[in-house]
């Protein structure tokens, strides 16, 4: 059995995962929102642990023409000093020093509002932040 907090996070992410799976079964392209909005470079917020949506999302788009500039992860950046699959993993604090991207995709849906507040505190505008849920439901 999972700890209560982990169970709550799974339950919160379940509708997104279900829609993601439904879209894959129907051969819909996860990158459609990016193409529609002319987003060519992105950052993925939340590499995640074993259960992370960030890894799932990355694995799905890594061979597309969307340029993943970096992962942002305030917990795992030190675990991947050389990056993850050739993509830099940075801390939230070092984000202002990075090359700008068209949009940041937030994958920890349970913490979305908290993460948006953190990003806006670093002067990232709300129109540069989207949830993985928005990506999945816009396919």
Describe the structure.
There is one protein chain. The longest helix has 22 residues, at 4-25. The protein has a single domain (4-137), classed as 3-Layer(aba) Sandwich (Rossmann fold). Helix content is 37%, strand content 14%. The protein contains five helices and five strands, in the order ααβαβββαβα. By secondary structure, it is an alpha/beta fold.
Number of discrete helical segments: 5
Termini gap? 33 Å
* Gross CATH architecture: 3-Layer(aba) Sandwich
Number of domains: 1
What profile does the largest beta sheet have?
Answer: 5 strands, parallel
Number of strands: 5
- Major sheet: order of its strands? 3-2-1-4-5
Can you write the helix and strand succession as a string?
A: HHEHEEEHEH
> Going by CATH, what is the homologous superfamily?
NAD(P)-binding Rossmann-like Domain
Mean pLDDT: 89
Strand content: 5-15%
Give a concise summary:
The protein contains 5 helices and 5 strands, in the order ααβαβββαβα. With 139 residues, it is an alpha/beta fold. It has one domain (4-137): NAD(P)-binding Rossmann-like Domain (Rossmann fold), CATH 3.40.50.720.
Secondary structure elements and their pairing?
Elements: H1 4-25, H2 32-36, E1 41-45, H3 53-61, E2 67-72, E3 89-90, E4 103-106, H4 112-121, E5 129-131, H5 132-137
List keywords for this structure.
139 residues; alpha/beta; Rossmann fold; 5-stranded parallel β-sheet; 5 helices; 5 strands; 37% helix; globular
